[in-house]
Every structure is written in structure tokens, then in C-alpha cells.
Amino acid sequence: MNRPTDPLVGQTLAGRFRVLELIDRGGMGKIFRAEQQPLGRIVALKTLDIVDNTGEFKQRFLLEAASCARLSHPNTVRVYDYGEAAGAYFLVMEFLTGRTLHQAIKEDAPLDPLRAIAIARQICGALEEAHKSGIVHRDLKPQNIFLTEHGEERDFVKVVDFGLAKEMSNDSEVSKAGNVLGSPMYMAPEQVEGKTIDARTDVYALGLILYTMLAGQTPYKRGDSLSIMMQQVHKEPLSFAELDPKLDIAKTLEQVVRTAINKDPNDRFASMRDLSQALKVAGAQVRGEFPPTPLEINNGRVRAPAGLEPTEEVSRSGRRIASEEDTSQHSLVRSMARPAAIGVVSLGAFGLLGVSLLAALSLVAAVVVFWPANPPAARPVAAVVVAATPASTPLPPPQAPAAPARVHLDSTPPGAEVMEDNVVIGHTPLDLDVTIGTPRTFALAAIGRTPKTVRLDGSAPAMVVDLPKIARIAPTAGAPTAPIATPPVSAPPVSTVPAAPPPAFEPKHVSDVKNPFH
Q1: In this structure, are residues 416 and 428 in contact, taking their beta carbons and an 8 Å threshold?
Q2: CB neighbours of 242 closer than 8 A, spacing ≥ 6?
Q3: 38, 215, 301, 354: which sits with the fewest CB atoms below 10 Å from its CB?
Q4: Residue 112 CB neighbours (<10 A)
Q5: Which region holds residue 438: left if phi is over 0, alpha if psi is between -120 and 50, else beta?
Q6: What are 437-455's pLDDT values in tens digits?
Q7: Could you give all domains of the chain from N- to C-terminal order, each with its CATH number?
Q8: Predicted TM-score of the model (pTM)
Q9: Interatomic CA distance for residues 202 and 183, integer angstroms
């Protein structure tokens, strides 16, 4: 596959980073594979296409880049350097190979409980260090968890995309109430409501990730962003038994998940360290090393049974954490046939409100490059194909892939969130590559607008989608406005007349944010 070229390819930025190839590009940035000289180290180099006439962005960029560069946990993507060169701000990070947890869930889910625990505890270690440094991730999701191989470990975690990470100090305006950032499916209720966030916001997201790993599906039904966010605030996820009777999840492990995803931050684990400790106890019970008794949790703190007292391992490498689990059954199914790449994924539901300075602060994301890996020895399907092909029968010549067509997708109004396979890929206007004969389906959503789904087949060079306003119910004069209440799940509909759409969800003081890499 021929990668697109760019004028920066072949140049050397800051006198030491030779740009080798363009990996991915977005609306406001690009990601390159580069070589750090004279070390000869391959790195991921991200550039931000920002016009900064006031110098304010540069000051914030340097502050946020320095904050993220302080993170050194083995399960966090490393930031090597940052600066300004060739008229662009750039960020240099370690170059990773492997696949995202999102892909692993799609291919392997539901994950074995011990494997899910090992992955989650490594994430705890990375986030615990960030929280101690005064940084909250705010956009933790499977797409931002990268699985690599490290020695004998096949699920060595790297937490990437600290693009939404902001300092939690008192003078950090992006951490105060009124700023809504994140991805709807893993967004904590306090994020949806624009309230103050802290480390427990990441605990909630990790709890939902753990739920998804164990169940093989997300806790809430996929749909438009506003619907998902309302579920985050008002709806409790089903138990594993209710979701799928075939799931065999230990009660203690389910207790850990339920505590992490509690709607009230005060009823969650107080820290990633406490969540990791609870997972350690649950893992011991799953392996039969400890009686299956409920955890004692008081004010978010875990009282561990004798022999399972807290250790310092959560702040060290994830290698010891993973080695405690039975990794023999955790081999990854590798099915990548050619290199591909991804960069920053979604900023979340409120990224559709427009470009702002905060969006430009999307700093740290690892370049995730999928290189073909040695497949497992046993690949039954491939074996059948080889056996069924007579030696004397020549294989047909490979057919040239169809050339993709560039389609310009826009909306009225512009700035709508564009999702494919329930993953936000950008905001309108957006240029998309569509292979003729292989249509792609996209969902468009904007706050206060009726979402729509479009199907692009490449036959037309452009499409504009009209997103009409959602009808609002005018309150009766003089009558108090009652809060929206979630009806009981068991209550049947009392009328066959279609109900009027609910008022548009409009949280107060929402920041004007857009993902700079889409």
C-alpha cells in the first residue's frame, strides 16, 4: 500500500529528527515515522498545524507537553521531545507495534477474566503515576490502550493519547467545572454534566473498559452521542448474568466492576491503586487461591485479606503484574496481513462544537502501527486452503485493488461528529476515501440536531447532509421546569401515539472543543 507523501518527508526537524514517511493525517495535524539522529532511533513524530499569532498557544503547548513528558511509567507511551520547527509545533514519541485493546476485544472477546485483570492492572499503574503527577487522562477507552509484546508478555500495555490530559491543579481552567471532554461510551457522569473531574473519572472509564473486556460488548447500547451520554447519567448497566447467562464472572470481580462504575464518584474506588488492589484480590479468587468472599470497601479504600496486602507494584512496571496471571492462555490472535496505521481517535461528543485553543492542546498520542506478525502455528482455515489447492494448479494472479475515490462529506450545520463502526473519525467537513463497490456507512450527530446515517459508495464526489433541529417542547407559561426523569425500565408504553422528541441536551458552560487530529 502506497502511503501519501508530504513536503516534510525527507526533511530534518530541529536538526535531529529525519522525517521518513507520513503515517496518518487529520484536520489539524499529521503523524510521521521519523529517525532520531544520531541515535538512529525510530520515533513517532506528530506535527500540529496551528497558526499562533498571539503566542498564547505556544505557552500552553510547552506547559502541557512538559507535563506529559514527565510521565515515565513503563505502561505509558513515552514522550521524547517537543518543540517548534518548519513552521509547526511537533511532538516526538516512542514508536509502537501491536494492536489496540479495541481490536483485541473485537477479535478475542469476551476476554478470559485473568487476562482482563492483567490488562486492567497495568492500566492502573500508568494512570496512578499520571494522577500523582496531577494529570487526569479524561479520554480513557479501548482505542487508547495499546497492546504490545514485551519479552514473554503478549499483553504489555501502553496507555496512549493523553491529548485530553489536563493538569488537575487548582489553577488549571480545563479541569474546572463547565468543561466537557471525553468519548461518550466511556465518559463519566460528572463529565457529561460538566462538573469537576478528578482521578475517579478515570476509575469510572477503566471500570467500563473492564466491563467491555469481560462481556465482549459495551455496557450501553450504541447510538448517537447524546443518547449514550444520557445513559451514562441515568442508566445502570446490566449485570453480567442479565447480559448473557453464558458469562461466568466471579462475584468478587463483578463487585469490583460495579464499584468502579458507580454513578457517584464518592462511591467508587478512591484511586487507581485501590482499584488495582481490588483486582489483585479478585484475580486470586478467580485462580482459587482465596475463598470467594466479598471485598471490604470503605470510602473507596480496599481492605485486603491477609496475604494480599497492598504493594508498590502498581507504580512500577506492568511486567510483574502480568506475570502474576496465567499468561499461557492469553496469546493474541494475529491476523494482520499488511501494515496499517491509526493515530488519534475521538475527542468525544462535544468535539463537534468547533475548534478552540483547548482542542489544539491535544498533545500526546502514540502512533499505532500494525505490522504483520508471525501468526500462531495453528491456523486451521489457512491449512484447509493450502491443502485444497493442487500443486499442479497455478494460483490466479492477484487483482489490483480498486482505486479509492475521495468524497467530500459536509453537513448543515458544519462541525457534526462523524462516526464509523461507532468510532468518531472526525467532524464535518471531512474528506473520506471510499473504494467504489465497497460502500462505507457513517453516522452524523450534532448537539440539538437530529442524527442521520449516510452511505457513501464513491459514485458522487461530495455529499451534504442536512441535520434538522430537534423540536423543543415549550414550557407552559408560569409553570416550573421539571428535570428530565428516566422512566422505570419495566414500565410499558401507555399510548401508541408517538411521543414528541425530548429537549436537546445542553449542558451549561460547555467548552468549544474539536479534535485537532480529525
Answers
A1: yes
A2: none
A3: 38
A4: 16
A5: beta
A6: 788 888 887 766 788 888 8
A7: 100-338 (1.10.510.10), 404-466 (no CATH)
A8: 0.58
A9: 12
